[in-house]
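Thread title: Can someone regenerate the structure for this chain?

I was given the following input by a collaborator and told the matching structure tokens would be attached. They weren't. Posting the sequence so someone can regenerate them.
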Amino acid sequence: MATKEAQARIKINKLLEEAGWRFFGDVHGKANVMLEPNVKLTKAKIDALGDNFETTSNGFIDFLLLDEQSFPLVVLEAKSEDKNPLIGKEQARKYAKSQKCRFVILSNGNLHYFWDLEQGNPHIITRFPTQESIKGYHRFQPNPQRLITELVGKNYIALTQMPNYAAEAGWNNPAERDAFIQKNRLRFLRDYQKRAVQAIQDAVAEGSSRFLLEMATGTGKTLTAAAIIKLFLRTGNARRVLFLVDRLELEDQANKAFIAQLKNDYTSVIYKERRDEWRKAGIVVTTVQSLLFNDKYKRLFSPTDFDLVISDEAHRSIGGNARAVFEYFVGYKLGLTATPRDYLKKYDASKPSTRDPRETERRLLLDTYRTFGCESGQPTFRYSLRDGVRDGFLINPVVVDARTDITTQLLSDEGYAVANTNENGGAEEENFFQKDFEKTFFSEATNRLFCQTFLANGLRDPISHEFGKAIVFAVSQNHAAKLTQIFNEQANTLWPGRYQSDFAVQVTSQIPDAQQYTINFTNNNLLGSANFLDAYKTSKARVCVTVGMMTTGYDCPDILNLALMRPVFSPSDFVQIKGRGTRKHSFLEQLFDIHLKEQIGKQEKTQFKFFDFFANCEYFEEKFNYDEVLKLPRPGSDTGDGEGGGTTIGSGGEYIHGGIDNIHHVKEEAVGPLGMKIDRRFFEAFENTVKADTALQTYVDNAQWGHAVDYVTSQVLNKPSEFFTLDKLRRAAGVDRRLTLREILEKIFGLIPKFKSKDELLEDEFQKFLLDQPAEGLAKHADAIVALKYFFKAYATDGRLRDIIEKRQLTELNVNPAFSMADFKAVPKEWRERLPEYVKDYVSLNQFMQ
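Best answer:
Regenerated them for you:
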């Protein structure tokens, strides 16, 4: 017992010091940690207590954390590792009240709770709050009743934008009102958006602190979020709001929206642009990846820094390790999602299918609903695509089921059969399926046919009559490059001289400024603003070819054509892609010739076409009513582009596109864990090379890690001059696990102080695991946290143990030296399956390999 008490004390002391609390005065300030008032804290006293830190002759010793004036601020109730920290809850409450403290921390060194005595129940935390954070939180006096009774009308946002709008002449003249609203960009809540805000109020009245809004793409989740943010800030139930997104382009998009809608009352900032001033803002917008990087959320923020945390596209931005960021902060939690759970209603949780790619999606959605307190599957508020179409706010697509002979066979149960010759000269048959397209199965004729069909049948712009703006989704970056080239070639044939290879643009992570391309496409100035009609502002580039950049949250309402030139296996991706076209739009907003406006008349977007070349709609919607089915010319027939038939198959079962390759040499070399001396010099040479590269420095400064990794891979690695390779760099680093190229770059550019060891990473992952678990389960088995951690680390690093657990060959644990049957039995039954499932779903095991 004494050992467990001592271990707990060591951990608690370390956590206090990491959060800036001081047992003894130093250059940073006077001591702000005291023991029970009748026990004087000295170094000698700490040493004398030794292992028995919990008790003295005067009774139990509590940690008392002080404010800057040395007044009591927080009571820290400490228990030994084998005790549940919640058992000291009432004792801590009594002591806190005697010291006039509002806040309590309960900890056993491994599991910690933060408790605001004026705000209900203790919350699990992974780091102790700082004095500064607690001091700010102390001034925070929330009043849920004010939030519940606040009147939220349709003009809730407009009153912030222009408080006296109702007195303006432009508003009071019905003939001028629409122009007045547009000129001042006033935003009014629709009825369903008001209902969403009121649903939050009702949930708070029922004692909830977690909410989930499920609203279809195009129904104004950001505007609704702005109204909820105003509700919490205005009623004093939040001092500061954290808005989490999962993509850089959404970060900028959300911040601009909050500035436009709330700037007169509240300040909104992007964290990376205001690193030193974010505390002055009411709304802080950031990507979850930014906070995950190097555990920034734990190093730079305290758990009490935000009182409302909103997760945009919640099914993505709290997936896997990202949930640790979301759960780190105490207070209210709101999730926004466009993905309806109904897409997965026929999938049985008791019969998981590892082959079905939708099973992962199902688990993710279940976790999303559970995270926001909606275990029943009913969100706090739901407004579906069907609701939006019914109410006249959204439009459904015209689905174009366009299959070629080849894609039809790829989609069949038998696949596309290709005759092949084996090593012995005999005949073999190789079968390809839709998942193989543009990965191991390449068909130039099919890609050309896709593009030709799309251009021949896509909707035209109602004003300029050119091809309507479009987004095409490709399999990969290489596939996107191919399609872009084909589109530009065919556009030059259809409209000679009109487009100079700027009809189609590749918009993927490998393309410099790709994020800006997406913004320019929305603003109708991608590669120019007009081509057919000078008075009409519309993007000269008509087609953006992407892989995944323009899916979640991308807002471009004048899109008329979408195409899936790839199979999609994720329901949320499918819904998001389809949602890019559902918004309504008035094309006259882009026309600046008054006379032409009068001649043309009303031009509203009433439909968009959704080209489906891989039966994705059929895959997700069993009873889908196709509006249009095209008969396509067969590959190899006269398509007008001179394409003929003919196929070459390689021995590996792939289409060969030409060219040769040879092995230069084969060399084996055994190197110890620290690498060779030449490897260490090699790392220094690599460091000097990348630091001198200004293009790479720009990517790093802007946190564009995808670009940075791609750039180093293509421009630096495996070049004849130095022949830097990732394997050599890993050996040179001398770390007991596998490093990623991003980690290596982060270390070189000083963004992380060192490479974390395998055990340090395991500790981090275990803390994330604890955050993901129900608080009542952890409280029930607090004495088994140490055993649980041992199981977690062993399971994450020992492939043999994983195999034993997965195959249920538990008797083999009796002779397993690393993790025995006794170790397994020490883990509570309910965690024996839950922990392996979590590791499989959320932990990258590759990082622990050597």
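The chain has five domains: 2-138, 191-390, 418-629, 677-748, 758-848.
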